[in-house]
């Protein structure tokens, strides 16, 4: 994978503030691409790099840090959402489980 494409994916993952599922999908896509890129380029990164390559790597490092912070924030947000959902579900179950203590079998009298 090309470094410019990886930078573009990171920027897209950070720029989109749409729904949670889409953000997670973009972060997962970036993460998989980063792992693939790092595995193929880790040996060549030790060699001497030109100034433009160093600048792009510095930009990628900044974006990668921001992506990690976004992922951590989404993790906390998801955890809070699950906690709220469980509390709401617990309240609903208390309401649903409140059955009458006595059931009348006699019909009401007319008149």
What does this structure look like?
This protein is mainly alpha-helical and 111 residues long. It has a domain at 3-79. Helices cover 73% and strands 0% of the residues. The chain contains three helices and no strands. It has helices spanning 3-15, 20-41, 51-96. The longest helix is centred in the middle third of the chain and has 46 residues, at 51-96. The N and C termini lie far apart (85 Å). The relative contact order is 0.12. The mean pLDDT is 82.
Give a quick rundown of the structure.
The chain is an all-alpha fold.
Task: Give keywords.
about 110 residues, mainly alpha, 3 helices
Rg, Å, rounded: 27 Å
In N-to-C order, the SSE pattern is HHH
The low-pLDDT segments are none
Structural class computed from helices and strand pairing: mainly alpha
Helical content band: over 70%
Please report the number of helical segments: 3
Taken as a percent bin, the fraction of beta residues is under 5%
Count of β-strands:
0
Based on Cα principal axes, name the global outline. Answer: rod-shaped
Distance between the termini: 85 Å
Major sheet: size, sense and barrel closure?
Answer: none
Overall pLDDT metric = 82
Layout: helices, strands, pairs:
Blueprint: H1 3-15, H2 20-41, H3 51-96
